[in-house]
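Thread: quick sanity check before group meeting

JM: Hey all, I'm pulling together slides for Thursday and realized we never actually wrote out the predicted structure for the chain we discussed last week. Dropping the sequence here so it's in one place. If anyone has concerns about the input, flag it before I start.
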Amino acid sequence: MSDFSLRRATSADAGLVRALTRAAYAMWVPVVGREPRPMTADYERAVVEHLIDLWETEGSVAALIEMVPAPDHLLIENIAVHPDRHGQGLGSRALLHAETVARGLGLTEMRLYTNALMDANIALYTRRGYREDRRENAGALGSAVYMSKRLVPGL
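JM (edit): ok, ran it. Output follows.
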């Protein structure tokens, strides 16, 4: 995977972030019965207010992770991998990158949430050491699964 470069998204990347996210989440529309929240997010705002890191190769964006630092944890708001890049370990790579970012900020806890119907995502997060904290019914939006992971200091 050395052919991927990593960089922080800027305001000029909002359209790229949106396009990649829409492509990555399109497979979930029939499962959830609607566009998942990341497909409708305001990325002009997100690239300014959040940390969004992009993996690029061959002139295109292959994956991204959107992170929101809080005083006591780092929230993973969005992980998107282009459908052509599924199975290449970019989701796991993004999770590990977020842990590095969290440690750099002096944080020892990771948090994320996903739709309860996105079982492949839940399985990935579980394999990467996340535990389910709770499920919350969001009415028409379905059920959300909230997960977290404690980071071992110094690793």
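AS: nice. The beta strands are 5-8, 51-57, 60-69, 74-81, 109-115, 131-137, 143-150. Residues 5-150 form a domain with the Aminopeptidase fold (CATH 3.40.630.30).
JM: adding both to the slides.
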